[in-house]
Specification:
Bound molecules: NADPH dihydro-nicotinamide-adenine-dinucleotide phosphate, oxalic acid
Structural class: alpha/beta
Number of helices: 9
Number of strands: 12
Strand order of the largest sheet: 8-7-6-9-10-11-12
Radius of gyration: 21 Å
Length: 309
């Protein structure tokens, strides 16, 4: 049995070593693969060139290196009938919850203001608000959204979430669908986007959405750049409707050098690193899934390609 790997960042031999340790019988090949395409059973990929996966006639499953699968869904030549599996693994989940907690606390504790004060050599205390005075609202109550909310619980924020289907989560006020969107936003002071990018969620962070938030809210986008209408955010930051933003993902990555976000004093940004798949833990999830399929059981975390996530 053979698996072909294409990851985005060089983790040396971490993937190969973890696979060898967890599944010695599996032959592992790195991209680009020059051998017989028919010999490849599984692909573990991040952003493969369009049409490339179609070259492998015997693929039994395509594993996404990331939780998001938009990099696969956008391939018009993705092989039909081959299940696509999204990444669900504890390392990726933990990293995202760390980032979201950090970003929420940054906004809650006025760190953008203190950074501005520091640049201007201003020594001034800003009035501190208790956590319960703020609502953190998470768009997307999937694996990552739910874990981030769990990790935020001990701080005492009021917590809310929004998803496509109804949910019930202890300590979180849950809203769903278009009908619940305005009510969810109305009380949300710090908005976190952890949605998958689909035709339905594209551009969800826009002027209309910002207008429904309380004035001076903060926005944290860790979903995909396509969720945010960047010009709408710039306008909302200028007007003060949005007081600050933490952005990890962008319409164009890497962010172009002349993009206004680079210099914007109310934007904290990072280069799509909110979380990363950890080979050592991710391999266990992939191997368990391959073994399940080989034993005639159903794969876990298969994407519904019609739904887009
Ligand atoms: P899941 O598939 O587990 O969860 C997706 C959630 O979004 C579900 O709650 C789903 O609702 C909800 N949702 C989907 N479509 C809609 C819609 N139209 N309206 C309302 N809610 C909707 O995904 P994960 O939590 O694993 O990952 C979320 C995203 O995070 C990834 O797709 C990826 O884009 C991003 N990500 C970013 C990273 C980074 O480093 N910046 C790292 C990892 C992931 P329902 O529950 O009803 O199905
Ligand atoms: C992911 C990502 O989807 O890193 O996992 O963006």
């Amino acid at each position: 049995m053979a698996l072909l790997i294409k990851t985005d960042i060089d983790r040396g031999d971490a993937w190969a070593e973890a696979l060898a340790a967890n599944y010695p019988e599996l032959k592992v090949y790195n991209w680009p693969y020059k051998g017989d395409p028919a010999a490849i059973d599984y692909a573990l990929v991040w952003q493969p060139p369009e049409g490339e996966l179609k070259r492998f006639p015997n693929l039994k499953a395509i594993f996404s290196v990331g939780a998001g699968i938009d990099h696969l869904a956008s391939d018009p030549d993705l092989p039909e009938g081959v299940p696509v599996v999204r990444m669900v693994e504890p390392g990726l989940t933990a990293g995202m919850s760390e980032y979201v907690t950090l970003a929420v606390l940054n906004h809650h504790r006025f760190m953008l203001d203190y950074a501005a004060q520091r640049r201007a050599k201003v020594w001034e205390e800003l009035l501190q608000l208790p956590a319960e005075a703020r609502q953190v609202g998470v768009l997307g109550l999937g694996v990552l959204g739910r874990d981030a909310l769990e990790k935020l619980k001990p701080f005492g924020f009021r917590l809310a979430g929004w998803s496509r289907s109804p949910k019930s989560i202890t300590g979180v006020t849950c809203f769903h669908g278009e009908g619940g969107f305005a009510e969810f936003l109305a009380e949300t002071d710090i908005l976190v986007c952890l949605l998958p990018l689909t035709p339905q969620t594209e551009g969800v962070l826009n002027t209309e959405t910002f207008a429904k938030l309380p004035a001076g809210s903060a926005v944290i986008n860790v979903g995909r750049g396509g969720h945010l209408v960047e010009d709408d955010l710039l306008e909302a930051l200028d007007s003060g409707q949005i007081s600050g933003a933490t952005l990890d993902v962008f319409q164009e990555e890497p962010l172009p050098e002349d993009h206004p976000f680079w210099e914007h004093p109310r934007v904290f940004m990072t280069p799509h690193i909110a979380s990363m798949t950890v080979p050592e833990t991710a391999v266990r999830a992939v191997v368990a899934n391959i073994q399940r399929l080989e034993a005639g059981e159903a794969l876990q975390h298969v994407v519904d390609m019609k739904r887009g996530y």
